[in-house]
From TrEMBL:
A molecular-function term among this protein's GO annotations: D-inositol-3-phosphate glycosyltransferase activity
Gene from which the chain derives: mshA_10
InterPro entries named among the record's database cross-references: Glyco_trans_1, Glyco_trans_4-like_N
Pfam families xrefs: Glyco_transf_4, Glycos_transf_1
Alphabetical list of SUPFAM superfamilies matching this protein: UDP-Glycosyltransferase/glycogen phosphorylase
KW Heme (keyword) present: no
Name of protein: D-inositol-3-phosphate glycosyltransferase
Ranges for domain Glycosyltransferase subfamily 4-like N-terminal: 57-224
UniProt keyword Glycosyltransferase, yes or no: yes
Keywords: Glycosyltransferase, Transferase
Species: Paraburkholderia phenoliruptrix
Domain Glycosyl transferase family: start-end pairs: 239-401
EC annotation from Swiss-Prot or TrEMBL: 2.4.1.250, 2.4.-.-
Amino acid sequence: MRPTLDASPLAHSLPLVAPACIDPAAAPLGSGIAASAAVHKAALPHVLFVDQSGQLGGAEFALLQLAEHYPSHMEVVLLADGPFRLRLEALGARVQIINDASVSGIARQASALNCLRVLPGIVRQVRAIAARAQAFDMLFVNTQKALVLGALGKALHRKPVVWYQHDILTREHFGRVQLAVVKWAVRLAVDQVIVNSRASAKSLAALTGRAADTAPVVYNGIDASAFNCVDGTDMGMLRQRLGLPEHAWLAGLFGRLAPWKGQHIALEALTRLPDAHLVLVGAPLFGEDAYAQRLRDEASALGIAERVHFAGFQDDIPAWMKAMNVILHTSTEPEPFGRVIVEGMAAGRPVIAAAAGGVTEIVRHGRNGWLVKPGDAAVLADAIGVLRNDPALAQRLAQQALHDAQAEFSVDQYVQRMMDALNKAVKRRDGEANAQTSP
Ligand code: UDP
Ligand code: GLC
């Protein structure tokens, strides 16, 4: 059982923004595009999407929103099975699993020797993807392994390859071999890169020599209506429902448990905030179980275990976010985009975020959120203190954040921009093909 703290006078001192519910029936949780008439389905190319993961990470949520938009025009190939498949199928998408245990084992810091060992598995997957791609207008690769397999099969499938790049391609995040493989896959076989932020585009340019402006920026979209439809005005009731302490002052940190997501920085910051609680929502999705255990051990060693709540992976992110007084983002390496930041904004809660990567394209310090130096627990604790002690400032930030999330990061905008980029890629390819055949 989770212990609750004595009622704190500051527990509910942050005025909370409670937006009106737009239309829950028309836009079920996680969608936001079901009611959209903005995109003309007839004009859409038929797309084979490929993603390496069966888990639900940010890249997979971004793909879910595309799948939801036009299930009849697409199919998804996954290189691993998992909850992502179930979510895709629930939307009516056709999913095929092309799995190979040896290839699944390749790590981010892959060595050249490892790559050689898994060669037969790679060849099998390349062939299977290329064969499936014959029935589509293009191949949309959503992760790096998918990129490499799609690129290697280019001579077989001869379809335009579009890569939605979700990563910042630097040594902070990836090994030398992996970066070299990605660089050559892009140079030799990718017709169009679409990036999730300008920061990701910059890293692409530095790695491949392709000008950053050749890759359109398509920011992820967040379904504001899913947030609007959670009533966060009665905090007590909401927290009771989620099993959280009703009267404590809660800082929420959302995202998979992984060292670079910096949950340990939040733990350290909590030691400087005597009566605040920290709620960690998320699970180790990609094998970071040792880090998850380290966080629990650290919470005990620091004497704050009573004030740290490990919630595990949760589906109802809008409700969990609305139960918080402040939302934290603590990545120690530059975050390529950061869906959780926009979600915190859409929840109408003040957001404190680590100022690096795509984050600075979302958060304007002192206007719609609060930026802090990445990896610095003392600075983070100070920032939490500032917002806790100045409810008027916190409310102003939250109000502007809610507006900006809806105006700049809607699902409609996301889907429309993505469709425009895909249509352009197909047209350019058709133009090139015509130019080659005409005398
Ligand atoms: N998420 C979730 N349940 C959890 C933790 C996270 O559904 O328990 C979602 C979160 O709402 C967000 C995504 O996972 O949409 C994480 O995406 P983000 O871009 O923040 O980070 P990534 O994991 O892709 O690096
Ligand atoms: C990746 C990035 C994350 C981004 C997400 C969606 O998983 O780590 O920053 O928000 O993709 O583009």
